[in-house]
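pasting for ref
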Amino acid sequence: MSLGSAWTPNKSLRRIADHLIDHLCQIEARIAGETAIPDLWRGRSVTLESDWARFTEQDLDEATARIRRLAQLMALRLRALRAEWDTNAGEEWTIRAIAEHLAEATAVYASRPVATPVVSPPQAE
């Protein structure tokens, strides 16, 4: 337990991938001059049943490969937009602020789960 919710390897990796997708969509919508679809999901505060699933080395390999591809896509987009990093975005974050936020949040999510007492998955009623 940390950051107000339960963390498992599955949840940590899900949050990293989802967060990259959320902000990549935000950036792409801005470039296209469109309004980004709001993210109404409270992913960090919700622990899904699938987050409690068994986690194997193959699961880690698969998730790591997906996250690396997403991170590469984000890095390519950010480099292409280097001249616009600090352009005023009104009430939204600048591209630089989004990149800094992603780096910080990914480090936090990647550090979960931290060493805590073992938490048993919820039991079906």
